[in-house]
Amino acid sequence: MQRGVIELTDTASHTGTVTARYAGRRVERIEDSRLLTGHGSFVDDISRPGMLHACFVRSPFARARIRGIDASAALDLPGVHAVFTAADLNPDVREAWHAVAGKDIPDTPRPPLAEAEVRFVGDPLALVIAESRYLAEDAVELVDVDYEPLPAVADFTRAVGGSAAGAPVVHDAYPDNVAGGMGGAPPDEDTFSGAAHVASAHVYQQIHAPVPIETRGMVVDWQAASGDLTIWASTQTPHELRAFAARLLGIPAQRVRVIMRDTGGGFGQKVVPMREDMCVLLAARRVSAPLKWIEDRRENLMTAGQARHVDGDVRMAFDEDGAILAADIDFLQDVGAYPTPYPVLTTAAIGMFFPGPYRVPKASFNYKTVFSNTAGLAAYRGPWQYETLTREILLDIAARQMGLDPLELRRRNILRGDEMPYFNPNGMPYDHVAPADTLEQAVKILDHEGFRTMQAEALAQGRYLGLGYSAYIEPTGAATGHLASEGATIRMESTGKINVYVNGGSTGNSIETTVVQLTADALGADIADVATIQGDTAVTPYGAGTQGSRSGPMTAGAVHEAGTILRRQIVAMAAAMLGVEETAVELSGSKALVREDPGTSVSFADLAYRAYYEPQQLPPGMSASLEATARFTSPPTAPIHWANATHACTCEVDVETGHVTLTRYIVSEDVGPMINPNVVEGQIAGGTVQGIGGALLEQMSYDEDGNPLSSTFVDYLLPTATEVPPIEYGHVEIPGPGVGGYKGCGEGGAIGSTPAVINAINDALAPLGATITTLPASPAAIIEAIEQAAN
Asked: Sorted alphabetically, which InterPro entries does this protein's record hold (predicted)?
């Protein structure tokens, strides 16, 4: 299903018309040849002469006072160069704010190394520098720390109120353990009390984490003589890391270079530099050689940040026909000990987006972000996902209360394309979307009525099948602050080949492939003639990197801006060489040709030869430049590119064992025209699998004393191919407001999948009267719900 036409011509000058040859095609990923043959280059592949290695001394207590640190035994170990504590590194911090929040927004505490008190198991309190990681780990064991254990609070729902409620205080500056909060309009209790139907639910989502295949890491090379700092990093935002390092150390940004090569996943965890990154940057200026830190898996699970940990109450009021009258959400979010970055405003998205893709006349929300003695909150793919989880679970509960099929209740309330633009009751301006279209496409692919027939037949045989839907709408390419613009440089080399330079942040999202497709189309070049250079701040324009599902729409805008400038220059040179007017020139197949006489042409190679080696033969006053740099800035009239999707999941639940088998999984999405359908579907699949893991398996658990119980993959369970059925795709293409109509697709899979799976399980359990609203839906949880319903 497609709406709209993408214009690729240069409408400003009507010159250099090009035909889209690559955008929209399933071009094979250019990254794959090196990655699949083992020729990728990751941070741990970097080796510098004389390089030293860093390893952290981490707290074994969730909360304790640091009475003293004796590093003498560690320093006596041959090969150990230094042991740094907070007293050594922390005073060197100049500025430590993140661009995603801005320098003027008050932040929560975030010291590089723990000062006076440790606040979660894994809290770094010293940094050992040695000639190898092996030696550094041995030395860590020799650092003698005198701890005075203190009471800790790992359960954030018990932390609210702090000492007044008898709970330990995580930070003295926050005696009630509340980092902050926000409330929208108060609930309209008259609407709820007078409604024909009111549904409510208490929904708890467990902690789970991004778990990238490559853990965090960096290599830092400080050259004291020149004052130059070079950083190789596993990051989603090389330019922000560069700016952060300059601010942190108080050195000029032009002396800092960040190189990001291949990065094995990020999912939000690598958007902003964390405390360990700060420590390595600070320590690098105190040692005599380059410094490497590579996080191991146990550290990653214990300390790299938690996500999704929310507990709340939701309710909806409906009229007698099932139309939504009001929606309300009241929740707590766990932000751990050291959230990154300031968590209060980002959590607001849960409340703001709670009405979702539905016709909701009134909405209210209230929330608090709460400190606990656990790892800090970090970004994770669709960090506001709890709004979709709770809303979609609640809609199924409401439908069963009203005796309706959950599909029918959604159909009565979901927004249509002819209702756009539409402002949700919290002021979110939806446009260029038609959520009803993705819903109906998913229903058609599934064969809803056919499944219901099969489900009834299975139940008669004692088998429990279920179907769950989940619909959402999400902002992509959100143009606020430093996220609002992106740069690109496009250069035709002396051979006629083309390089496009962009910020990068490529962490598996295939931005290399898509930017090459876009550039080839922008200039009418053969795709084989285009390459890209990314992730090196010394040569690429500033950009905000991979976050907020922004790479597609923002990079497309930047390539369009730079491509328009360069295309005009190519056309001007070609017209002079061909002896025709510029309006007669067309670019195609890496050639400039006369539109009415295609046999008359000049190749890009010949144009480049003239520009580089015979510039004196160009007409007087004509520039010999075949390079353009430009920045795309989202207009304030179109700051958000709204994407939406409907997920449909079917399953079978073994009511004797609690085991869930997913039988079909369907995603109908609208991310606008697809630059590369393979990439879009890959992004959807990756996020969907993460959401399935969150629904069924993944859980970062702590005991009452704050000890982590899932610090290895033996305890922290991830989905594998055996848990995930083949994913079926449907595409609705409604162009967005930006260049090419493109929208982001990085986060939707992870947003929509968890509630679809939970709803499928609850649909299967409906004949038994059981409902899961506490995640994950493990076999034990399912059996407990069945037993409770029976009693």
From this structure: Ald_Oxase/Xan_DH_a/b, Ald_Oxase/Xan_DH_a/b_sf, Ald_Oxase/xanthine_DH-like, AldOxase/xan_DH_MoCoBD1, AldOxase/xan_DH_MoCoBD2, AldOxase/xan_DH_Mopterin-bd_sf
Q: Do 373 and 255 belong to one domain?
A: no
Q: Which neighbouring-strand residues pair with 601?
A: 593
Express each pLDDT in 682-736 by its tens digit: 999 999 999 999 999 999 999 999 999 999 999 999 999 999 999 999 999 999 9
Same domain? 602 vs 689: no
Per the CB < 8 A criterion, the answer to whether 628 and 562 are in contact is yes
Distance, in Å, from the CA atom of 465 to the CA atom of 467, rounded to the nearest integer, reads: 7
Cα–Cα distance between 337 and 109 in angstroms, integer?
A: 9
Q: What is the pTM of this model?
A: 0.96
* Gap between the Cα atoms of 448 and 22, Å rounded: 36
For 726, residues 6+ apart whose C-beta sits below 8 A from its C-beta are: 665
Residue 3 lies in a domain: no
H helix and E strand count, the chain: 20, 29
Which pair of tokens denotes residue 473? 């709408």
| CA-to-CA dists, residue 310 to 136, 427, 520, angstroms | 37, 24, 45
Instruction: Locate 10 and state its tokens.
Output: 């240069």
The amino acid that residue 439 corresponds to is L
362: in domain: yes
Counted domains in the chain: 3
Answer whether residue 123 is part of any domain. Answer: yes
> Kindly report the CA angle at 237 between 110 and 508, in degrees rounded to 5?
120
Amino acid at 627: E
Same domain, 68 and 27: no
- Is 123 strand, coil or helix? coil
Element (H, E) at 568: helix 551-578
Examine residue 196 and state whether it is found in any structural domain, yes or no: no
Regarding whether 359 and 397 lie in a shared domain, the answer is yes
Cite the beta strand spans of 462-508 per DSSP E.
464-476, 485-492, 498-502
CATH number, residue 291: 3.90.1170.50
Q: Clarify whether residues 328 and 407 are in a common domain.
A: yes
Q: Quickly state the pLDDT bin for 16 (edges 50, 70, 90).
A: low
- Domain interval for residue 50: 43-150+215-263+270-303
Which of 749, 769, 766 has the alpha carbon at shortest distance from 690? Answer: 749
Encode pLDDT of 742-759 as tens digits. 999 999 999 999 999 999
Across the beta sheet with 291-294, what order do the strands follow?
Answer: 80-85, 124-130, 52-58, 291-294, 217-223, 228-233, 256-259
Same domain, 323 and 389: yes
Q: Find the helix packing angle between 677-696 and 748-765, rounded to 10°.
A: 50
pLDDT at 142 over 60: yes
Length of the chain: 791
Q: How far apart are the C-alpha atoms of 114 and 618, rounded to whole Å?
A: 64
